[in-house]
Design brief:
The structure holds two protein chains of two kinds.
Chain A (H helix, E strand, L loop, with lengths): L6 H17 L3 H8 L7 H9 L18 H13 L6 H15 L2 H13 L4 E4 L15 E3 L2 E10 L6 E8 L2 E8 L5 E6 L8 E14 L5 H37 L1 E2 L2 E2 L4 H30 L4 H27 L10 H13 L4 H17 L1
Parallel strand pairs in A: 1-4
Antiparallel strand pairs in A: 2-3, 3-7, 4-5, 5-7, 6-7, 8-9
Helix pairs in contact in A: 1-3, 1-4, 4-7, 5-6, 5-7, 7-8, 7-9, 7-10, 8-9, 9-10, 9-11
Chain B lengths: L6 H17 L16 H18 L17 H11 L10 H14 L2 H12 L5 E4 L15 E5 L2 E12 L6 E7 L10 E7 L5 E6 L8 E12 L3 E2 L5 H15 L8 H9 L13 H29 L11 H19 L16 H12 L6 H12 L22
Parallel strand pairs in B: 1-4
Antiparallel strand pairs in B: 2-3, 3-7, 4-5, 5-8, 6-7
Helix pairs in contact in B: 1-3, 4-5, 4-6, 7-8, 7-9, 8-9, 9-10
Classes of the chains: A alpha+beta, B alpha+beta.
The complex binds flavin-adenine dinucleotide.
Flavin-adenine dinucleotide (FAD) binds next to strand 1, strand 3 and helix 11 of chain B.
Chain lengths: ~375, ~400
């Protein structure tokens, strides 16, 4: 039994944490948050690229450094902790994974090396406005090598170089790879609850695109990409939840009321103990997910859903109780509490909300039980 | 990361499994087998036979030193054994308090001669031990206990009352915390002993608990004499000695009996709701199953993390301390929800109830689990103070002489 990260993986995590601590203290996400002209922090992105973070899990033959997913999970946790305002999840967990999973040899060669070096930023476009998209409700179409219709909100849609689009093809759903800087593409920024991560509405009007994987397989491929991405998102969420707990515990030791630290009141102590409990349950599920991801285990769908559900709830809980622990100051624009509160909500909705993943979890248990 | 055994562990697992195959029956799903509604007297007799068999084969207390009846093996081997034994229908253990709490306390504080006399019969199940700590006015606040110990020559004379003492009615020996000086501050006036439960003046009265069973007792002491040689630690060191016991208690308790999330999953798959569909097709039911599955899996992986630490000879991380505070309320909630799925028929307990009444029994057992071995609230205090570094509660009694501390009901 060795259910732990290796020393090298821990060192990578520490290195990432140290780097982000200096390159991305909370003034950085706040700046992107407050300045609508800055879609993401180019400096932080450059620093991550510099330490080859986007290349972590890409095999060497495609221009990556071929470390693996345990390493990528370690990095993701730190990205989440620092609230890094960068297109890491879009480009690395989604676009890269989609191409690794469904791309032809040629597509892999062409796109992965650019993703690895940060030369290109990729994203993944599924949502079509408020409400759930299903395999039967897709309105964006792909026919004759061209995309038609609107996707919104697309994470990093305003800055990405290309997108993997889930579309209705001629024989069922498909994934289509589209150059966002090319013809037939118009994009418009969309405001979300977390402006430190930019989103856009992208309208395709005959935009040329190439198939990624086969026609008809789109929905299934999307689900498989999301299973993998769920674990990486969960690691980000865990990092954020941990940061909230730290922040709340620190504050509660130093803030006095009724002549004593508020952290000595049981209502606060028990609240923070509950945050700790949820975070640790999430961490345990995430580490298992990391293992499943790194070994492509048969347990992946269950492990991914458990990691995702636990981390959504841990981060949502930690970020709201962090505000509560701070009292009035926690409700102000100046306080950093709401940066986490907003991010936790955004992440809880990216790639499907808790209710979607709970259902997927039970479906995965049903298939396992039937087998 | 790697969930596989090392070659030595794998070899040991195979050995254990074949011994179990030869000496016990595999569990049958949904049946409680040997542990089905038997009184504690009969149950104890069966358990003693099993424990003796294990001890003879060298599988009882693998981690204890050889001179005290153990095997001197790594703690990890004990866990391998437990994991394998869990899959077999073996009697519930009556020895957990003795082996998990009393033995480590004895190992730390008893004389060599006492250890050699007392620990091997604990290991073999010949002698059963209990923990005489809680009193009517001292539970969470254990240091508020008042049972008196007065020195008289080479003996101490004990008067007072303990309560909630699990297994006192069938125990041969017990560990006991007393107060020898009421003029000292509460944590300072305590002294710790072990005693023969057959000593004159010890009276054990079973308490009937929620379920109707009687697993714990009131224990009265009237002029009970304990030789000074059976004092553990110095006069006035009772609190420190108690902490040794309590630390081991936190390692020993943690898990909960079924039903767990997958039991609910199975119940929901085989139970119909309004529309004739299985309950598991209902979105609301699915969400609940998912929530508890995530908790149960989280605990399972936290155990794997602890095992990783143990197999490296390290102490488990602080996350290991959340086990009981998660699993006890989870047991209570899953039990109640499983009964809901069965509608008013969920109230039936006995032969007609699904899963051998696991949900009904869980419902009646869980409240005790949330209290025993540190209540939900006390465990949260401990996490907040020891793990998160938050300040301790304000104490109004800490430095007062014990006799001046106000008492309520
Ligand atoms: C099934 C079972 C088996 C047991 N077996 C044994 C045994 O073998 N030996 C033994 O010695 N004891 C045993 N106990 C006793 C057990 O340790 C105590 O019941 C427990 O410590 C709680 O103490 P209490 O019952 O006096 O409740 P109290 O301490 O009076 O608690 C009442 C309520 O007040 C809360 N409370 C108390 N103090 C605080 C605080 N500081 N902060 C917040 N809330 C607080 C508690 O959480 C609880 O909700 C057993 C109990 C049970 C239920």
């Amino acid at each position: 039994m060795n259910f732990d990260f290796s020393d090298a993986q821990k060192a990578l995590k520490k290195q990432t944490r140290d780097m982000l601590r200096s390159a991305c203290d909370l003034t950085v996400p706040r700046r992107v948050f407050e300045d609508s002209s800055e879609s993401y922090s180019k400096d932080v992105w450059a620093a991550l690229v510099d330490m080859e973070a986007p290349a972590t899990a890409i095999p060497e033959e495609y221009g990556g450094i071929g470390f693996g997913y345990l390493e990528l999970c370690a990095v993701a946790e730190e990205v989440g902790r620092s609230l890094a305002p960068v297109p890491f999840s879009s480009s690395v967990y989604l676009a890269t994974e989609a191409i690794l999973m469904a791309g032809s040899e040629e597509q892999k060669k062409e796109f992965l090396s650019k993703l690895a070096t940060g030369e290109a930023i990729g994203t993944f476009a599924l949502s079509e406005g408020p409400g759930l998209v299903t395999a039967n409700s897709l309105s964006v179409t792909y026919a004759g090598g061209k995309l038609q219709g609107t996707k919104s909100p697309v994470p990093d849609g305003d800055i990405a170089d290309f997108a993997v689009v889930v579309a209705e093809g001629t024989t069922g759903s498909c994934l289509a790879l589209v150059d966002l800087t090319g013809d037939g593409v118009s994009r418009k920024p969309v405001d979300t609850v977390d402006p430190s991560r930019s989103h856009a509405a992208i309208t395709f009007d005959g935009a040329p695109a190439q198939l990624l994987g086969s026609e008809g397989a789109g929905w299934d491929l999307k689900n498989r990409v999301f299973d993998r991405a769920a674990i990486l998102f969960a690691m980000e969420q865990l990092g954020g939840a941990d940061a909230c707990l730290q922040m709340a515990a620190d504050y509660s030791r130093g803030r006095y009321a009724f002549g004593r630290p508020i952290g000595s009141f049981q209502a606060i102590k028990h609240k923070l103990a509950d945050v700790y409990i949820r975070n640790e349950l999430a961490r345990a599920n995430n580490y298992y997910g990391a293992w499943a991801l790194s070994t492509d285990a048969a347990e992946l769908p269950m492990a991914a859903a458990a990691a995702r559900v636990g981390s959504i709830e841990a981060y949502q809980f930690a970020s709201k109780e962090n505000i509560q622990t701070h009292g009035g100051i926690g409700f102000t624009w100046e306080s950093d509490c709401h940066l986490f509160y907003r991010r936790s909500k955004l992440l809880s909705l990216s790639i499907g909300s808790a209710r979607v993943w709970k259902d997927r979890l039970v479906s995965a248990l049903e298939s396992r039980n039937a087998a | 990361m790697d969930f596989n055994d090392t070659p030595q562990q794998a070899a040991f697992r195979t050995e254990v499994r074949s011994w179990l195959e030869a000496n016990a029956e595999r569990k049958v799903e949904g049946k409680r087998g040997l542990n089905r509604r038997i009184d504690s007297e009969k149950g104890l007799a069966i358990a003693k036979v099993w424990q003796a068999k294990k001890a003879a084969a060298g599988y009882a207390c693998l981690g204890f030193p050889e001179e005290y009846g153990g095997q001197g093996r790594p703690l990890f081997d004990q866990i391998v054994y437990d994991q394998e034994e869990e899959q077999f229908d073996v009697p519930r253990s009556f020895f957990a308090i003795g082996l998990g709490m009393c033995a480590p306390t004895m190992m730390t504080y008893a004389t060599e001669e006492q250890k050699q006399r007392h620990i091997p019969p604990m290991v073999s199940g010949e002698e059963v031990w209990c923990q005489l700590f809680s009193e009517p006015s001292a539970g969470s606040d254990l240091a508020g206990l008042g049972t008196r110990a007065v020195q008289d020559g080479d003996d101490w004379v004990i008067n007072g009352q303990k309560v909630w003492t699990s297994g006192a009615h069938y125990s041969d020996w017990g560990i006991l915390v007393t107060r020898h000086d009421r003029s000292l501050a509460k944590h300072k006036g305590l002294t710790f002993f072990f005693l023969d439960m057959k000593s004159p003046g010890v009276e054990v009265r079973p308490i009937k608990q929620i379920s109707g069973a009687s697993d714990f007792n009131e224990v009265y002491f009237t002029n009970v004499r304990i030789p000074d040689s059976q004092r553990l630690g110095g006069v006035g060191d009772g609190w420190t000695v108690s902490l040794t016991t309590l630390m081991n208690e936190r390692l020993a308790v943690g898990g909960a009996p079924p039903p767990d999330a997958m039991d609910l999953f199975k119940l929901a798959a085989s139970t119909q709701l309004e529309d004739g569909e299985p309950a598991l097709a209902d979105r609301a039911v699915r969400e609940k199953v998912a929530d508890w599955y995530v908790q149960a899996e989280g605990l399972r992986h936290i155990r794997s993390r602890a095992l990783t630490a143990l197999s490296r000879g390290e102490a488990p991380g602080p996350e290991a301390s959340i086990s009981k505070v998660v699993s006890a309320p989870k047991l209570q909630d899953i039990s109640a929800y499983g009964m809901d799925l069965l509608d008013i028929g969920g109230s039936i307990i006995g032969d007609e109830a699904p899963a051998d009444s696991a949900f009904q029994n869980g419902y009646l057992y869980a409240p005790g689990l949330r209290i025993a071995g540190g209540t939900d609230e006390i465990l949260r205090n401990i996490i907040a103070e020891r793990v998160l570094g938050l300040p301790g509660d304000i104490r109004v009694d800490r430095d007062k002489p014990f006799e001046d501390i106000p008492t309520g009901r």
